[in-house]
Amino acid sequence: MVQPARVGEVAGTLAAPPPKLDEFQFVKVHVDGQVARLTLDRPEHNLLNERMLAEIAAGINTLGQRNEIKLIVLDSARKAFCGGIELGEYTQRRVFQLFEAFNGVYSAMLDTSKPILLVINGPAFGGGAELAALGDLVIATPKARFAQPEIKLGVYPPLAAAVLPYILGPKQALELVLTGEAISAERAQEMGLVNWLVSEEELEKKVAEVIAKVTAQSGAVLAMAKKAILGSLGLPLREGVRASMKVFLNDLADLEDSQEGLRALVEKRAPKWKNR
After folding, report:
1. Inter-CA distances, 149 with 82, 91, 157, Å
2. Out of 15, 85, 172, 248, which residue is the most buried by the measure of CB atoms under 10 Å away?
3. β-pairing, 196-197 with 137-140?
4. What pTM value is reported for the model?
5. How many Å from the N-terminal Cα to the C-terminal Cα in the chain?
6. What is the 3-state secondary structure (H, E, C) of 9-25?
7. Pseudo-torsion of CA 86, 8, 133, 240, nearest 10°?
8. Where do the structural domains in the chain lie, given as residue ranges?
């Protein structure tokens, strides 16, 4: 029996280079000033395969390096936000490659300095629910549902098993992973998985409102704030405070925008950000 490559091993070939934005097949890219939008668009339910995961990671990494961009929006062109991993790819031979591809998305979402806003107007199951958990901000409508159904297939979601306890607490993470049952958007908001729950009619207005609020801030300071918050996750309180203060004193204090913000306050005017 042929054994799958172990994590970290190269399965006979060199890893393919990340796809370029103009080569994407399943993710649409649109940049409008300070906002970059990545739209999942794979028939029929945005099921994730290696190529699509590589495009999501490459999109975030590439756009995250552009200084003019302050916010990345991840949404869907389909009725489902994301139905999870394509089962055809979930084989013994491919499982490690698939995990590596998903790890690329996980790393991109956590490592990028840009805040990531997810807009969910349909089911987010399996890997789709994990994308929601990794988003910095989440807007959903009542059409959204969230589930980690992997337990029903005789496996468990390794990423969700590690991430959800941080976000939801162990009891609620155990509920989602051990039952595999879907929860409503309302329940997801109560749990802390969703920031804003709005009607479908109000969705575009709410997305525009959140985009306006985030992009009104200094891009450089947004990056420092995200770095401080994520850098403190999992640390004891005292160590978390020290980590946040270290970012504040060593990184934030040198920013031109921090000085501009204080001047604007004293002079009673709106700040003029240089995003540096």
Report:
1. 13, 17, 8
2. 85
3. parallel
4. 0.90
5. 56
6. CCCCCCCCCCCCHHHCC
7. 180
8. 21-215, 219-266
